[in-house]
Amino acid sequence: MNFMTLQQLADILEGKLVCSSAEPAWATTYSDNSIDTRTLQRGDLFWALPGTKADGHDFVPQAFLSGASSAVVSRLEPSSPGGPVVLVPDVAAALTRLASWHRKYQDALLIGVTGSVGKTTTREMLHQVLAQRFSGMQSPANYNNRLGVPLSLLRLESEHEYGVLELAASATGEIAALSQLVAPEVGVITHIAPAHLDGFGTLDQIANTKAELFAALPATGFAVIPEEFASQPAVRRAVSCRLLKTGLGNDCDIQAHGVSQSEGILRFIVDRQHYALNVPGRHFLSSALICLAIAREFGMTPTEVQAGFQKFRPLPGRGRVLRIGHWTVVDDTYNASPVAVQAGLRMLTGLPVPGPRIAVLGDMLCLGDQTAYHHRRIGRDISRAGVDYLVTLGQAAHDYASGALQGGMSASRIAVFQDLEQLQHILGLWLTPGAALLLKGSRKMQLDRLIPWLERESTQVATLQTPAFLKRAG
User: Fold this and answer.
1) Per-residue pLDDT reduced to its tens digit, 116-130
2) Which residues 6+ apart lie within 8 Å of 404 measured at CB?
3) What is the pTM of this model?
4) What CATH number belongs to 106-311?
């Protein structure tokens, strides 16, 4: 974000600049934005956004104590906030207004990425590829909703040539609103699958919502989508620009051949060019082909694309493979949907390990009245996938177990829990040397808390297995 004075900010937001001291607040400048006092940097502008669990206005004094130069608020507290503020009717609306204003003055080509799964992986991979030739940015962390997208836009700088922005939604119309703000020239739909069904209701509604991104693209832009979703009626209706299809089919614009996955390396060929990524599962191919399609449109060479692929690594909680003691752990804890869990199971069963394969699954949330159906279906898949043990956690844990039993899995190899600490006891019994674990569940299940526990357990196991004379010598 370029520097601007508070008076300029107040004018853009049509707000009122208020200062409780004799300092010339109109001349105060700021360069970055913050919504969290825990990560706020000195000189930041603090946005007092309302939240479901806390109100940002309660943290305004702390923001100034942490070095904020100013704050945007919708009300003035009786006590002095500790610095100059811009008073507006609605802080969230003001944030969007500033982002919209800022967008008009940026020349970067913006790429919008949406989909039921794979958004963050595709965004990160695409950024790594494009950065081999161009200057640009990507959405930080999970800044992909009505508050995160404006904050992402405000990170655009004048020297940026591209921006990769992730767009998420839990209800119809949300992608359209975000797309109007971003005004992307390139659109990507990574996947259309059951997710947030409590908000969308049906798969058709999900498709309609994801296609809102394509409907927002200019005629001079282009859209990219895996071949299996290109024929969706919602997609066909929305597209008024070039549509690039990726996949294995003969009619794909980017067609992969010779796909193989072994020893943590995904390999494939496109137009006689060989590519490779250090990723643990074949499902990363979809993101790679999308990135390749866009890179080609940008005039990048196969060597540049491969250099970007080489730098990409799965993010924490998104299919990252960890080696903890004698165990191999697939950390896929960030979120979960039926298609994502199935991809995780393929990663687990594809690992070359000598010990048992254990699936630790938490609830897949936001599936509405289809919750039981999808959990039972995953359970049946597990019984046929080559998984040795199933450990489940949450309100739908019994549905996972029911499906696995129906599929023929032995009850002695299934454990159901409502409490994470109780789960750890049985998991500790099944964790033998050489075991592989998949940790997968919706974010609220907090299965990532098992990773530090596993690290402690591995240390204890190593200590117990150390010969007595070595322990005495230490």
Assistant:
1) 999 999 999 999 999
2) 379, 380, 382, 383, 390, 414
3) 0.88
4) 3.40.1190.10
